Amino acid sequence: MLLTGAAGFIGSQVRTALDRRGHEVVGVDLLLASAHGPSPTPPQGVLTLDVRDGDAMERTLRGIDVVCHQAAVVGAGVDADDGPAFASHNDLGTAVLLAAMHRAGCRRLVLASSMVVYGDGRYRCEAHGRVVPPPRRAVDLDRGEFDSRCPIGGEPVTWELVDEDAPLRPRSLYAASKVAQEHFALAWSLASGGSVTALRYHNVYGEGMPRDTPYSGVAAMFRSSLEAGEAPRVYEDGRQTRDFVHVEDVAEANVRSVESGLDGFVPLNVCSGRPVTIEEVARSLADARSGPSPLVTGQYRAGDVRHIVADPARATERLGFTAAMAPAEGLGRFAWAPLRDAAGSGPPRV
């Protein structure tokens, strides 16, 4: 099998899990400076290869029966200049890979997708039932009004679990690229008769996360602050809710997807099933390290969503996958786990 992004945070964990299960893995990675730092050295057994190089990919895919596609530029995006990198590495890269798979006769794909494809989560208004709040306005956020409201009467709304049939409403450049990846993969599966399992990762954390980069996950940012003796800075009021899933569970979901051989296009949430607030994440890490208490800043990032919490039922039903690591245990471990030695260097570029 072929594993793209094999040197990355998630890809390296997937590679280890596949090796342990006896799979013969060919690993490739472009080793972008934005993720791996300047002048990175490829890990043993990983080829330096760009998935946008169709001829090279076709040669590498000869004799491969399944591709586990982890390679991507990640993060919410810092500014509009990041858009071309997301489109090139994520979307063009996936399209080129799929075409190379077709030419090489490989018909199975496990795709690393993301919960960001949903945009904001699912909400219910007591007066009007299930509703879709509009994107939050800067004027409201500036006043500290962070909660979404019913678009019909303005009433408060409560979040509900998001299942895989929810509409896709991307709210960031990265999210738009992940939706496009899924659409390319779905179209490829219909045209070629191939199968795609699209794993929609929720907030992934764990050993080996990159540090000190705005493109990293919030858990790593909190860790970096605590290591510097500073309070973790929590945006908004800290009550925004997410699902944090440990990278070891994500790797297990990938292995099960490789081994299951699901037919057609199947999107699956990969999550812990145990929602937590962002302030709870920061406080758990601070307590575990006996560090300063989190600082709730009231600041916000344009495009951030208020709540997004996943329904894990379909992954359990289709893959037999249930996350083993509860956030309390996982965050306690993560508080002292080693992060990636080489910090990312600069923003992602084409």
Would you list the SSEs in sequence order as H and E? EHEHEHEHEEEHEHEEHEEEHEEHEHH
The rough form would be described as: globular
Helix content: 25-40%
Please describe the biggest sheet, giving its number of strands, its sense, and whether it closes into a barrel: 7 strands, parallel
Counting H and I runs of at least 4 residues, what is the number of helices? 11
From the alpha carbons, calculate the radius of gyration and give it in angstroms: 20 Å
The span between the termini is 27 Å
By DSSP, the count of extended strands is 16
Estimate the mean pLDDT confidence.
93
Strand-residue proportion: 15-25%
- The computed structural class is alpha/beta
* Strand line-up of the largest beta sheet: 3-2-1-4-5-9-14
**Poorly predicted residue ranges:** none
Question: Top keywords for this entry?
Answer:
single chain; 350 residues; alpha/beta; 7-stranded parallel beta sheet; 3-stranded antiparallel beta sheet; 16 strands; 17% strand
Describe this structure in words.
The chain has 350 residues and is of the alpha/beta class. It has eleven helices and 16 strands. The chain has helices spanning 9-20, 33-36, 54-61, 83-104, 138-142, 173-192, 218-227, 247-260, 278-288, 313-319, 327-334, and strands spanning 2-4, 26-29, 46-48, 67-69, 108-114, 122-125, 129-131, 157-160, 195-201, 203-205, 233-234, 241-242, 244-246, 265-270, 276-277, 295-296. The strands form five sheets. It has a seven-stranded parallel β-sheet, sandwiched between helices. The model has no long low-confidence stretch (mean pLDDT 93).
